[in-house]
Design goal:
Number of helices: 5
Number of domains: 1
Number of strands: 3
CATH superfamily: MukE-like family, C-terminal domain
Distance between the termini: 23 Å
Shape: globular
Structural class: mainly alpha
Radius of gyration: 13 Å
Oligomer: single chain
Largest sheet: 3 strands, antiparallel
CATH class: Mainly Alpha
Length: 93
């Protein structure tokens, strides 16, 4: 983690927000969620454009790294099999 990431407030830190988003997806009853729904669930202040953009950027980053994928259209995301497997392994530690 870079120095800039460690000095940033957690709600603006993409790595921390990404972890929370991924946990929300793998632990949720519904694995396929809309981007807007995830952003609403994970942000403390949905009227804060910086916080909302951080969450959206974290979703894009999770997709680029192969941990989430888009479902039927570009507004629905779900965790990949790799993300679910890694989460299951982390629970056994």
């Amino acid at each position: 983690m870079s120095e800039a990431e460690t000095s940033t407030h957690p709600k603006y830190n993409r790595a921390i927000v990404g972890q929370m988003l991924l946990l929300e997806l793998v632990n949720g009853a519904t694995r396929c969620r809309t981007v807007a729904e995830l952003v609403d669930r994970i942000t403390a202040d949905p009227d804060d454009p910086s916080e909302v953009e951080t969450a959206r950027a974290a979703i894009r980053e999770l997709r680029e790294t192969g941990l989430v994928t888009y479902c039927d259209d570009a507004q629905l995301v779900e965790p990949t099999k790799a993300a679910l497997h890694a989460h299951a392994l982390s629970l056994t530690l």
